[in-house]
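G., before I forget:
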Amino acid sequence: GENVEQHPSTLSVQEGDSAVIKCTYSDSASNYFPWYKQELGKGPQLIIDIRSNVGEKKDQRIAVTLNKTAKHFSLHITETQPEDSAVYFCAAVVNNNDMRFGAGTRLTVKP
Amino acid sequence: GAVVSQHPSWVICKSGTSVKIECRSLDFQATTMFWYRQFPKQSLMLMATSNEGSKATYEQGVEKDKFLINHASLTLSTLTVTSAHPEDSSFYICSAPYASGTQYFGPGTRLTVL
């Protein structure tokens, strides 16, 4: 089955700096890659996603890149703010419903 | 985005009792819903796939007789933890696919078994 690896497990940046989280996947059939932000005690919230027919997608301060050949995708957050502090999960989806998560990255943005 | 609700948001129960958690898709229909379990500082682990009108599909290692799932309608799935024990204490989260793989999650239910 699909195996998703996520790095780093923790990331601390200064407010205003950029943050990058990287994920790799194993199943070449994966065709959808969402990113979720989870705050303490809450459910994950979808923040951005990308499909396998696109190499990059941007939404304001958040961008995601996908390299299908290398089977890796990354989340980029620019101009980080303290409210960006949370746990971020990447995921890879096969056949629309089979979603596997990475282990998560705890991002801390220091004011 | 689509909205998924869960009820209750937290529950405390005595060991040996059963607890039911509801997951609802509020503004869309979902023939499939997913149940996850999350321990502190860990990722989400898929427990089972809930299918409307048919039996749930459980992940390996998840006891189907302990975690009963019922998908009674296109907007409601329930997870019942039967004969709960302290080791069942966890954060339970459901999700529902809205369109072409886009899954929306509920706010989660914190279960504490004394």
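The interface with chain B takes residues 31-32, 34, 36, 41-46, 49, 89, 93, 96-97, 99-104, 106 of chain A (CB under 8 Å). The CA atoms of residues 76 and 89 of chain A lie 13 Å apart.

More on Monday.
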